[in-house]
Amino acid sequence: MKRSLSLLSSALLVGLFSCTDHEVPNPGEVSRQTVAENLKSPIGLAFNAQDQIFVTEAGTGNQDARVSMVMNGQTMPVVTGMQSIAAEGTIEGIGHLYFHGDSLYILHGIEGMIYSVKASSLNPNQPLAASSITRQFVRPFVDSLKLVTPLNSNVYNLTAGPNGDLYITDAGTNIVLKREKGTGKLSLFAKIPKVTATAEAVPTGIVFDGQKFLVTALSGGPFIDGTSKIFQIDLAGNVSDYKTGFTTLTDITLSGANKPVVVQLARFAFAPTPGFVPNSGNLLNEEGKAVATGFSMPTDIENKGTNKYYVLNHGSGKLEMVSW
């Protein structure tokens, strides 16, 4: 399958041809609360040092991608004017965001860049224009590696690793990049192998557990159940399987016991009409056991306390808190 620039549009195109770590709570023990609604094609979720909520919204396809702050159920833009394009049945462009040190970092796949802005500058009463904040082009470096034909890049998610360097998943070229703290120098950290003989990995979420990186894979089409994985990458960039047998994973966080908790985008049905099954997204522990089900194409999960997780639904535009 040829991967398009957008993670989600590449997925949708195919339609056309702990948790307490090892235990899962009983269904009656799980509580779900809506934190915000009517988000415009949300992709990424992050909390600042004051535990305030920020999301990336891909917008409506009218050059209106933005970063927004969520407070008391209300959504207020803090960075506006990013590229947003409607293509192949979805809205594409902006990726995830990440607070690190005194800055917020924002990835944008279509523009092929990473934005950064001082966290203290984010003010819903005075939104910043994207053109006014610091930008660094990533796409030219990715293209210079010439790892795929045709050239394809979609910088999608990021986390901090040792020494404060940033590590970035590229869902177009199937790699993890390293961005050095201070200098911003980019280098190739790891190549993510195919999940099957024919299906690309399409790396999505990434976390560092103190010893190694864990990376989720959406997997390329035709999105057969069980072909997605969690990869592990050591500090030298060596990649191996951590857990297998998942389906369309889009993000990962760590539990209080430092174990992976992931979200599944959706199941893909081949008949009667090929496409993703509505509301078939799940929150899973590292063993693949479902903690909560019925999400609408979730793209981000964040841990905010013992058995308390925030899940961002791209399909419904809803942010939920799941707890037990």
Structure characterization notes:
By secondary structure, the protein is mainly beta. Helix content is 4%, strand content 48%. The protein has two helices and 29 strands. The protein has helices at residues 7-13, 139-145; strands spanning 31-36, 42-47, 53-57, 65-71, 74-82, 85-87, 90-92, 94-100, 103-108, 113-118, 128-129, 134-137, 155-160, 166-170, 175-179, 186-191, 203-208, 213-217, 228-233, 239-246, 249-254, 260-264, 268-269, 275-276, 281-285, 290-295, 298-303, 308-313, 318-323. A hairpin with a 4-residue loop joins strand 17 (203-208) and strand 18 (213-217). The longest helix is centred in the first third of the chain and has 7 residues, at 7-13. Mean pLDDT is 92; it is low at 1-5 and 12-22.
Task: Give a short overview.
With 324 residues, this protein is mostly beta strands. It is 4% helix and 48% strand. The strands form 8 sheets. The protein has a 5-stranded mixed sheet, with no helix packed on it. A 4-stranded antiparallel sheet has the order 1-29-28-27, with no helix packed on it. Strands 8-9-10-12 form a 4-stranded antiparallel sheet.
Which key terms come to mind for this protein?
about 325 residues, mainly beta, 5-stranded mixed sheet, 4-stranded antiparallel sheet, 29 strands, disordered N terminus
